[in-house]
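May I ask for a single protein's sequence together with how it folds?
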Amino acid sequence: MTPFEEPGYAAVEAWVSDLHRSFRRTGPHDIADIAQAAPHPTRDLVAITATLRREPDDEPRRQVVLVDAAGTLRPVLPGASTTSPVWSPTGDRLCMLAAEAVVLVDLDGAEIAGAGRHP
């Protein structure tokens, strides 16, 4: 008899699987991780790259999100995979990477310019 055939193995395996799933649960905004924070040069606003995952077993996706002083989150280019936010010196534009492209957006998140390929 192998260890995998031992009585109780299935229960232990299920417990470990459930424990791993619970480690992947996200908070109320579906954020699993935060990276690449870029503070706005003059406002109480930060552009971050957030790793989002709605459910524990979903594939994570990266999205640039704006976070204000109240903690309100606003995705930039919703639905697109975006990373590496950088503000212009005046803070009126935000540059980021999106699917093998460089994208420039205004403070409202409207795309101003793009170079390369992106959705």
